[in-house]
Amino acid sequence: MIEKEALEKILTYAVLAPSGDNSQPWKFSIPSQNIVQIWNIPGKDNPILNYQQTGSYVAHGALIQNIRIAAAAQTLSVSVKYFPGEKDCVAEITFFEKKEADTRLYETISNRSSNRKHYSKKPLSESDKKTLLLSTHGISPSVSFVFSKDAVDKNEVGKALATMEDIALQVPELHHLFFKDILWDKKGNESGIEGLYIKSLELPPPAQFAMRILKHWKVTDTLNRSIGLSKKIAAQMASVYRDSAIYGGIFINKRTPEAYVQVGELMQRVWLEATALGIAVQPVTGLMFLTHRAEVNDLTPIPKKFEKQILDSYQKVFNAFDAPTDSHLAFLMRFGHSKPASARSRRLPPVIV
Asked: Facing residues of 280 across strands?
């Protein structure tokens, strides 16, 4: 018999999964002693970037990967049924008892964090790259993980990835969504509420102060017009993205809800493996979600004038990988060596309804 307390403990580790702007778009139900249902909460994540809930589905996939690992540590195995039928039910997970515990990566769940610092020029070892690649095998034939080419132009990739920041600071709706999700003090972060803690953004103190001023759209708009603020900030972010040992891309053949959940499972698995190896990781995904909207001609409220910039930048990033031309780059991560992240965004406890 599986105790409810055991399932609740597993869920406390599950919700340590990453999500867009730390939106935590999930809740749970336990309809029987060995079943947990995972529910999406539409509207939690950025409504512009979270196109057709794909960003939230990635977060749910990361959560499911945490459940697999946390369950194994408690001598449980799981069977996952994706989208079992009820509206907003992302997965139904059935738990089974097994004889031996597997605690590998269990504690890594709570150690994982986004590291937005500049990384050193030290490359990943061949052994570490092999370990990361092997960790992604067997998750799903619908998703694949690929490292960037050895000869990739990181300056070009960095500039292309920073298209997100450039556009976000020129479109009032994106600007509003970004700044409303920032947690400005330690107290707010420790509460676990949705949002990104300002210190996790790795900004120097003067820039942290400037952010409090730039949260006002009129100020940002004026500085865009007078000094090209969005271009200057994008250039700074491009230098961060450039300073990576290597990039990892997650590719899918079709843009289906289940594929995006499996993107999240793969992403979380490789991220946890990297954490165990002492490798810094940052997901850089905004451009990929903008591209999805551009490809289906549904950019609103982003002005049409940005469409070419988005698609051209995406193509530059896509070309950094050896991937089938008919596949979609759904997710990107930068890897490298760095000092530990300065802070991490906290989580709310699991909501069980």
From this structure: 336
pLDDT for position 49: 95
Q: How far apart are CA 207 and CA 224, in angstroms?
A: 16
Q: Is residue 159's pLDDT more than 90?
A: yes
Assign 322 a pLDDT band (cuts: 50, 70, 90).
very high
What is the distance of C-alpha 263 from the center of its chain? 10
In the chain, domain spans: 4-111, 126-336
Q: What confidence tens digit (pLDDT) does each residue in 89-144 have?
A: 999 999 999 989 999 999 999 999 999 999 999 999 999 999 999 999 989 999 99
CA gap 117, 94 in Å, rounded: 39
Same fold, 4-111 and 126-336: yes
| 324-344 pLDDT tens trace | 999 999 999 999 999 999 999
| CATH, range 126-336 | 3.40.109.10
- At what angle are helices 54-73 and 4-14 packed, to 10 degrees? 130
Tell me if the pTM is above 0.85: yes
Question: Which residues are paired to 182 by β-bridges?
Answer: 196
* Fold of the domain spanning 4-111: NADH Oxidase (3.40.109)
Spatial distance between the Cα atoms of 353 and 92, rounded to a whole number of angstroms: 14
